[in-house]
Each structure stands twice: as C-alpha cells, then as structure tokens.
Design a protein that fits this description.
Number of helices: 13
Distance between the termini: 122 Å
Strand content: under 5%
Structural class: mainly alpha
Number of domains: 3
Helix content: 40-55%
Largest sheet: 2 strands, antiparallel
Shape: elongated
Radius of gyration: 45 Å
Length: about 350
C-alpha cells in the first residue's frame, strides 16, 4: 500500500506560515494572555483572562524527538454512599445551591481550559479531567442532598386541626343534670371524654368544653364549687372533684352490695359478663387485682358451666372464652333477666 504524501508546494507553504506565526508570538510564554470569547453555539458564562504560563506545550515536530503526550488513566471515584435523611433549613439549601452554581462555573472553566490544551498538545488533559471528575462528584452529592431534603419536606405530616366547642357539640354529647345517679354520671364522664378526644380538644380547654353539657344542679355545682375556681384547672382534677360530688359513698356502697350478690342465674354468659364489668368498675378491691377478678367472675357462673371452667382457665379472659364455648356446646338458651 502506497504512503500518501503531501505535494512539495503545500509543505513549503505550510512552513512559511509557521515561520510567520512564530515571528508574531512573544518569546516568553508567561506574557501570553488568552481571552476566551462567548461561543455562539452555547450560552456559557464569560471566562476572565488567564495567564497560562508553563501549563501548555507547543506541538513539536516529530523529527525533534519529542515523545507524544499519553493520557494516564484516571481513577474513577467509588459510587456515592446513601445519604442520611436529614432536614435542612432555608439557609442550608441556599448554601447548597450556591455551591452548585460555583461547581458549574468551575466545570465550564475546566472544559474550556481542556479544549485550549488540546490545541496546544494536551499535556494537561489528565489533570483537567481528574478535576472535572471530582467536581462532577461533588455536584452530584450536592444535588442529592437538596433533592432528599425537598422530598423529606414534602412528606411532613400537616399539623392536625385543633377541635372547638362547636365541633364537640356537633357529635351530640350527653347532658348531665346531677340527679341521674352514679351509673349515668360515670357514663356521662366517659362519653364527653371520648368525644373530646375525637375532635382533639386541647387539654387546657377540656374542662370548659365539658361544662357546656352540665345543667341544673350540676351547673350550679360547677359555678359555685370553690375548688373549681382555681386557675389552670386540669381535666384530671375536674374528674376527681366530679366523682367526689356525684359518686357518693352511699351510691358506691349500694353498687358494691349489688356486685357481691351478682350471679349468672338466667342470664347468658355475655349478659353476665357485661353486668360484671359495669358493677366491678365501682368496687375498689377489683382495681388492679386480676386474680381476684377472675375468681369472682368464675364463682358467679352457673354450676353446669363452672364445672368445665374450673380445671381449664385461669385468667378472666380465659374463663369468659371457655364459658361462652361451653354454653354453646350445651345448647343453652336461657330466658333473659337479671339474676341478683
């Protein structure tokens, strides 16, 4: 295969042009200012004049013995680790975006410098590309940080709306007049407390909100009771005073006697359990005593069911479950009524 050669006339013309360009360039490379103009094909920021000094080499003739520039392999950075989910404030985000802008500007300058270096021989390309790689890695990290924070902010649970007395009234809470008795008083207290929790009444407004449903004797007590006139009255204190007033000792003793006489009789197991729970709520020795509660419930069961329960179950829940099963197996269909 023949080697293609340039015509002698073109070679002489090229040498003359090279001599003319050398005569017009200052001898000292340190004094060569390079001005990069805005490209008409891309909208990149202007780069100020730079003194290239000794950072570029001229292309030497191959006959001069100069070794060709060989790009050394650039070690790639490892994959970025997973970033922690942290929330940053506005100033931190502004700082990240400012660093992103600076990183973009630096990358643009490095790209321009690399393009200029190619025309001068490419001696500085490995270092330039290494700096570019580091800059891109930093920029990627900054972008991930900002994106994670934006996503975290988007997932913030909105603050729940605080309920008002009007919201409470719309749920139809029970009214209390003060003459209904201890059982209804306990039911009223449980009802208003549950509804205030549903509409999210603040703790400092619970007493005032619940008092809306007090009428007649109960309203007079609320207005005239000195212990209720203290500032910042808590809901727990209100409940204690309410029970002290409307859960009288006489009523408590009557319920305790009723509880002691309670037996299943003609009641179903479920009916007996419901009455047992209602009355045991007012018996002090039943509070915090699961073993005593279980023995008392088992003792009140009908004899035919109690025989099966005694040797199997130990806790109140176990006894109730076994009793329900035995009742079903026996095909027991008792008449409804109260057995005390």
């Amino acid at each position: 295969m023949k080697k293609r050669t340039r015509p002698l006339k073109e070679v002489v013309s090229s040498e003359e042009k090279l001599e003319e360009s050398k005569s017009s360039v200052p001898k000292s490379p340190d004094q060569v200012p390079v001005i990069v103009e805005r490209s008409s094909r891309c909208d990149l920021p202007e780069i100020e004049e730079k003194n290239i000094g000794q950072t570029r080499n001229t292309v030497e003739d191959s006959s001069g013995g100069a070794e060709p520039n060989v790009l050394e392999p650039v070690e790639l950075s490892p994959p970025l680790p997973a970033l922690p989910m942290v929330t940053m404030d506005g100033e931190q985000l502004l700082g990240i975006f400012q660093r992103l802008i600076e990183s973009q500007t630096e990358q643009t300058a490095l790209m321009r410098e690399g393009m200029e270096d190619v025309t001068m021989g490419g001696a500085q390309l490995p270092g330039i590309f290494q700096r570019l790689l580091e800059s891109y890695t930093e920029q990627t990290t900054l972008m991930r940080e900002s994106m994670l924070d934006v996503c975290r902010a988007a997932r913030v649970t909105p603050q729940l709306k605080v309920g008002s007395a009007m919201d409470f009234k719309e749920l139809g809470p029970l009214e209390f007049y003060g003459t209904e008795g201890i059982l209804y008083a306990d039911e009223w207290l449980e009802n208003v407390e549950r509804l205030m929790k549903i509409v999210r009444i603040p703790d400092d407004l619970k007493v005032e909100t619940a008092s809306i449903q007090l009428f007649d004797i109960a309203r007079i007590w609320f207005k005239d009771e000195p212990e209720l006139a203290v500032p910042n009255l808590t809901w727990e204190t209100f409940k204690e005073l309410f029970k002290k007033k409307f859960f009288s000792e006489v009523a408590r003793d009557a319920l305790q006697d009723q509880f002691e006489r309670l037996e299943q009789g003609n009641l179903t197991v479920d009916e007996y359990a419901a009455e047992f729970d209602r009355l045991s709520h007012f018996v002090e020795y039943m509070t915090g005593a699961p073993e005593v509660r279980a023995r008392r419930f088992r003792r009140g069961l009908s004899q035919e069911i109690r025989l099966y329960v005694t040797s199997i179950a130990r806790t109140y829940e176990e006894i109730l479950k076994v009793a329900q099963g035995v009742e079903w197996d026996l095909g027991r269909r008792p008449k409804r009524g109260r057995g005390y």
